[in-house]
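Page header: ASSEMBLY MODEL / two components / 546 residues total.
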Amino acid sequence: VAGSSLWENFFRPKGDRDVVSEHLANTVVFRDLGGRALRQIRELVHIRDYAKDDVVFFEGQPGSGMYTILSGGVRIVLNYGRDGETELVRLGPGDFFGELSLLDEAPRSATVVATGPTRLGGFFRPDLMDLVGRQPRIGVKILLNLSEVLSERLRRTNIELKAARDERNALRTRLGD
Amino acid sequence: LALRPQTRLSLWVAGLGLAGFAVFFGMLQIPVLSIPLLVAAALGYLLAPLLDLIESRGRSRNFAAVSVTLVFLAAAAVGALYLPDWVGDQSRAFAANWETGLARLHEFAALAENQIRAFAPFVGPLNLESQLDVKGSELGGTVLRALPNVLVQAILGLVMLPLFAFFLLRDGRLAKRALLETVPNRHFEMTLNILWRINEQVGAYLRGVLLEAGLVGLTAFVMLAAGAWATGLTGVLPMSGILLIAAVVGLTNLIPYFGPVAGGLTGLTYIIFTFPDSSMLTTGVAVVLAAVAVAQLADNAIIGPLVIGRAVDVHPIAVVLLLLVFGRMFGLLGLVVAVPVWVVARVLVSETRSAVRSYGQHVVDRRPA
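Prediction written out in full:
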């Protein structure tokens, strides 16, 4: 890990913490949490540094948690290193990914690769479980935010599914004519 | 050398595990450091739920750690006030009946030898009485030689224990994070998960073992008190003596199989050396044996299955081998840590195997052109 050691962990400059807090506050999962709660979550976030082309996680691996991009960027790739490799999206500072892995260990749906020197803040399920036990109010708030993300995605998926069905029916009608 | 991703992952975790065990075994060589650290770690696991509860009421970790440590220090201070009187009482009881106790042991040795020779006449003279004298003086010499060193270590340990316990309670999480910071990115998520699972399982197991020891001690205490009351021994078997025997029975229960025997023998030794009147000796021995037997029965039938369960069952042969090896290598401390160390190693291996299987098979080595 570039620039990581026991020494640096204990004596990491305070400025880093402010950046992490700022990014956390702008992440939907930690929305509407107070300053004190955000400070507690910041203490649970693991700061990881990646070089260009370093893999954050591979498609199919068990999901453990989410990452927020503090600096640099990542690309999200399907079939990484195999035939049919497809880049789905590129994300930059302030973006986050993998948040649903906070809820279960379902396999990662894509591989995430750093596009250059990148610093990520990782928040993982074991820490969320710990937080729910110690600070149930904060834990419940995060779980509610995650539920909102889930319901929003379900709503969008339903709309897209309906649109696809309508399109299919329209095509059938047109082909029938 | 091109290795499969699974092999690389296995080697990484095996290396990490071996390094951890090497540090642990190295520490065991320095009892003055390792004993308070191990006790503090056990207390940390035991008290973690209490700290979490305090934190869930809106208090900081710092406040929770300070409060719990202060409560312990206060309890220790109260104990220290009564300890000299208590030790004095016990020492006087032993000193007053020392000669009688030795005579009883001789009597018992002679009786045992006669019985053995009556049942097996082909056995030659065992000289149990003279063996008793030789072994007794050897043991006395060993204890006297080791006593100053043990006292210094105990005092240092008592000073270090609250410090270690406080910092482990307050900063244990920080230390785990600092350790994770050193893990390379490609192994990070897997290591995080393995550590979490190991921590959960080992924590539950250690809390179970400590709770089991406490409940066995409590059962022995209740049985001894009831037995002494029912047989009219309260005059010669005081509450302080009952407490001592019950505490030893509880503590020795941490050592499988041999522990209960050691606990029972300690109780019998106490009776033999403190009972002034020989006519009550048989009743006293019966009360102690019955109390230890009931405590063991309760442990095997109710307490053990309830608080520890069968998840961490270790085969009896494995337990005996572990105790022999660890006892030989690290003495009494080795006997106490043998089974927990084995359980940790087993959890590490099983979790690693499953993690390597689920993480390693998805690693792609080839980078896209």
